[in-house]
Amino acid sequence: MRVLIAVTHLLGAGHLTRAAALARALASAGHAVTLVSGGAPSRLIRFDGVTLVQLPPVHVRGTAFARLLDAEGRDAAPELLAARRQRLLGALAETAPDVVVTELFPFGRRALANEFLALVEAAHALHPRPRVLASIRDILVAPDKHDRIATAHARVASLYDAVLVHGDPALVPLQASWPVDAGLASRLHYTGYVDEGGAISESDSPRAGILVSAGSSAAGLPLLEAAIGAARLRPDLGWHILAGHGIPEVTFCALRDALPDGIVTRARPDYRALLARAALSVSPCGYNTAVDLMVTGTRAVLVPFEEGRETEQRMRAERLAERGRARIVRETELSPSRLRDEVLRGLADSIACDDPVDIAGVVGAVSIIETLARQARPAAPALQARRPDWRPLRAALDRAADGGRSVPIWWRDDDAVAASPALDRLLRLSETFAVPILIAAIPAGTEPSLDQCLVAAPLARAAVHGLSHADHAPAGSKPAEFGAHRPLATLRTEAAEALRRARRAFAPDRLLAVFVPPWNRLSADLARALPGLGYAGLSAVPCAAVPGLVRADIHLDPIDWRGTRSLVDPDGLVARLIRAIEGNTPGPLGLLSHHRVHDAAIWGFLEALLDQVRTHPATAIRDPRDLFAHPVDEGATAWPSGPLAPRARMP
Asked: How many folded domains does the chain comprise?
């Protein structure tokens, strides 16, 4: 097989360590493995037989996982994130894998969702499509907001074939830390714990000394300082204190000089051998440390990392303590004297003989991946629509630029109700191409997760998409919710209720008081009444201006609603754009999308179109916030109702 594993460790190196162990095991089994790492390079991790691709690294400080920093500690710039994404997609194209594995995502790494989703969606577009797997540790930190859990589950359901859980439910099942519904349960595969360390040589020498390891990052500094204090109180116990390479050199030197030579050293690659000879270990309770303790049988005092909302290490430490494998000191209780006392108690403890835990996770994972890869491949998607010839469009834009004309363009998407992988993809396109977007949301169906999505999408704003998107038109008429066939009083009442619900669903800075009638149809009388109901703007098909109401309408809908419900003839769409550009049509050119029903052909056309227009000097990308803040040529009847007008769409 050809396997691509994508991992980004942001704080310690545990995620990279586990991913590298899986990669080496796959390579040892005869498979070609590419590991793409997006965190800081590590000196101690081996990549034998593995092709390593290093992205421009990012990291976080403390537990601020939403704030990505570059190698110099500055906020990660959009250009850096774009470079990471391109390099990741380049690795996918070069590898052409049979299996793609994302480490932790979609259960975590929300700050890097754009690049992980870009990878997974690009993998889905390959022919044949590779198996797409998530790789997670035994314990996760569940978000405190339910919609984030729902989003993770939706991404698994729509984009992933399986989830590898690198743990043993006999010690801790996934549902102890993360809600597992029926859909997720059907995709879970427990591999056993991934044992990254090497074999331990037998020795007749008795165990001796206290081995202290605080992890690879600066987060372990409080434990190192407490251990140095405990070593001063009881130097006779024989201490060896390992400082991770994430500790700055000046800080390390101060720690080293606090005790006699040789007691405080940098972390070493033979940690497993040192641990096997130690009488007792003092450490946090990260995944790899717990595995090392289970393999060596070394007694332990565990100081789980609990800053912020981190509960993973405490839960794992408690499970080991329940089995008689360890004692626990909480970070808030840590001091030299408390650590000394627990070390002395730990030395007096006997190792409990309990039920074994599966630590053959690399073997289990390789077997599971091989089995999944041998299964019938997912059906290839239908042949995508023919790519249009973009040269005539570029020529039309060139002529506009030569004539000193600007072609304003704006973007609206309809029918939003909740977070979903499709909405993620839409918002990522907006961010990738730096094109602001107006999200027309159905007030009666809007869920809280939609507003949460917009929190992380600074280029997106919401608008009012009717009330419930219900068709009230008489039989045989074109569908409409706010058409002239209904009493004006009813239309006014429902339009007012729609705005009231939208204001309750969205934060004030994320909602524009813009009315977007379903099917782009509304009564002229209602249009004139909208300003009195609190609306500032209207977006539909081109028609006469309304005093007191800002208009920015839609002119290009790429979906064949009356036929295939896929992409309209792409060359025909390009021809419509050219006619609009060369016809000097007043007002901005409005592009319409419907993320909930897009197939591969529509997504492909939309992405290509945005790429064509965003960089041309003749185009002026308009932000809905600006469009609806000022009238758009209020005296004009705007665009003609000829070939550029959208087709009447179905529900």
From this structure: 3
